[in-house]
Amino acid sequence: MVLQTVTTFGAGMIFGLALAAPPGPMNAIIAEESVLRGWWAGFRAGLGAMTADFCFFVLSLAGVVTLLNRQPTLRAAMIGVGGVVMLYFAYGAVHGVRESLSPETKTADGGSGFRKAFVLALTNPYQILFWLTVGVGLLRPGTHDLLAETPYVGQQLAGTLVVQTGSAALLVGLFAGIVVWIVGFPATLVAARRRVDALAPLVAAGSALVLAGFGVAFLWDASSALL
Predict the structure, then answer these.
(1) Nearest-5° Cα angle at 144, 143 to 145
(2) Could you give the count of Cα atoms lying within 13 Å of 170 in the half-sphere of its Cβ?
(3) CB of 27 within 8 A of CB of 185?
(4) How far apart (Å, rounded) are the C-alpha atoms in residues 173 and 177?
(5) Chain segment 1-47, per-residue pLDDT in tens
(6) What pLDDT does 48 receive?
(7) For residue 56, pLDDT beyond 90
(8) H or E segment at 93?
(9) How many CA atoms within 13 Å lie on the side-chain side of 7?
(10) Cα dihedral sign for 113, 117, 120, 122?
(11) What kind and span of H or E run contains 143?
(12) How far apart (Å, rounded) are the C-alpha atoms in residues 190 and 196?
């Protein structure tokens, strides 16, 4: 029993890392905050995204997320809002490029990263759809092919990690994996930033491009669904 719990926890942690690691709008915000304001700011941005995940988890327990799955128009509207929010933060990331090139204008407001990531995560269609589908499934007793849901490489990893769902150990492991990422990813970027002076403007510019690209894509999806 103990071995099964530990195995399930480890599987959940691997799943959490697999979900958190791929490039996307959340990691763009974490990267921008890390190279501009340091590890603490990057960690707080990651904590903001994880807090949104926890909110979706609670809503899943309450059945609210399942209700949203039955309202395609509302889902499309939420995707559209997410697109607008991403474009707004992309505009902010452009200012981050200027900030990185002008050290005298640099700010140390790590709290803004938490707020940005939290708001962005709450309107991020990927996170919403995850909790509408996979997240709800993790709460129900049964089995689930965890790595098959990994962004970009799910098909190649299908069948690698099949675990029992409905377990507290699995869910705790999932959030533990996210914590490992939001601690380690900013630390890696800060260490690299100390060695490469040009890293900060490059990361800020990359964050702006990622956020803008996702914002346009989400607005396109929303308009297609609503029209």
Answers:
(1) 135
(2) 23
(3) yes
(4) 6
(5) 677 778 888 888 888 887 888 778 888 889 888 888 889 999 999 99
(6) 93
(7) no
(8) helix 72-101
(9) 9
(10) negative
(11) strand 142-145
(12) 10
For the chain, the structural domain boundaries read: 2-226
Helices and strands in the chain: count of H runs, count of E runs? 11, 2
What single-letter amino acid sits at 155? Q
Distances in Å between the alpha carbon of 103 and those of 29, 37, 52, 122, 203?
A: 19, 11, 32, 31, 15
How many other C-beta atoms can be found within 10 angstroms of the C-beta atom of residue 102?
9
Backbone angles phi, psi at 187, to 5 degrees: -60, -40
State which amino acid sits at residue 180. Answer: V
Closest CA to 40 of 172, 183, 200, 212: 183
How many CB atoms lie under 10 A from the CB of residue 217? 14
pLDDT in the model for residue 125: 74
Which tokens is 8 given? 């399930």
